[in-house]
Amino acid sequence: MTIKKHAAKAEPKTVVADDPDDRKGRLKSIGGSQSDHWNNTLANQAVQALWVKNSSAEERDKQLSATVAALIGIGPKDELEGMMAAQLIAAHNAAMECYRRAMIGEQTFEGRRENLAQANKLSRSFAALVEALNRHRGKGQQKVTVEHVHVHSGGQAVVGVVEQAGGGDRGKSEDQPHAKQIAHAPQPAMRRADPEREPVPVAGDAERPLPAARRPVAGRAEGQ
Fold it and tell me: Lowest mean pLDDT: which of 16-30, 71-85, 124-138, 157-171?
């Protein structure tokens, strides 16, 4: 007679997403979250990415403590910053390990080249994470403010530094150091209503004035 044993069904576990005992934020300085479960998990992920195979017990404890101290030093303000902080530490440690292996005296040329290539990729990832963290925190953004810009009809605005030979509105521009300098394109000078007669070029090397519109004609009597 064969007796079959049925495996006991595992009881379903209930996951509490908003546990009051968990969301006290006592470890928020480590992982940036109000959930201490998250902060503790993130710290464990960061320390487990360390290379501690050849470390003594004392050195390993120092590495673990230093990793947690680095997370606190980065100071994540939310869960996203906490994840980037943990990856920053992991990328740094992995890059330094590759650099160390590349510098071993017995390392082959191929091994040195491969380790340096991996270290270069990890360093680039580290730099990208730093840039992403700064963008998330609102750093590195430039704001340009332009004040008192007036472009009159027919003029062209020039954005940039405009130097003047002297005089003019230099005092006004100095009073506004952050305002953009504006220059207008020069317009052609208009002729006067009654311009003086000017010499006109004629054949030859000389110039002669324009003759008057009316003058006596030889061979004709006045009044004819």
Answer: 157-171
Is 99 domain-assigned? yes
Q: At what angle do helices 36-48 and 79-102 cross, to 10 degrees?
A: 10
Tally Cβ neighbours within 10 Å of residue 138. Answer: 7
User: Does some domain include residue 89?
Assistant: yes
The answer to whether the beta carbons of residues 149 and 180 sit under 8 Å apart is: yes
Q: Are the C-beta atoms of 100 and 60 separated by less than 8 Å? A: no
Say how far apart CA 224 and CA 220 lie, in whole Å.
7
Within a domain: 37? yes
C-alpha–C-alpha distance, residues 95 and 116, integer Å: 9
Question: Which residues 6+ apart lie within 8 Å of 55 measured at CB?
Answer: 63
- How big is the CA angle at 210 (ends 206 and 214), to the nearest 5 degrees? 145
User: Is pTM, for the whole model, over 0.70?
Assistant: no
Structural domain span for residue 129: 28-136
* Tokens of residue 205, six digits: 């090397």
Can you tell me the distance from the alpha carbon of 106 to that of 104, in angstroms, rounded to the nearest whole number?
Answer: 6
Q: How many domains does the chain have?
A: 1
Residue 206 within a domain: no
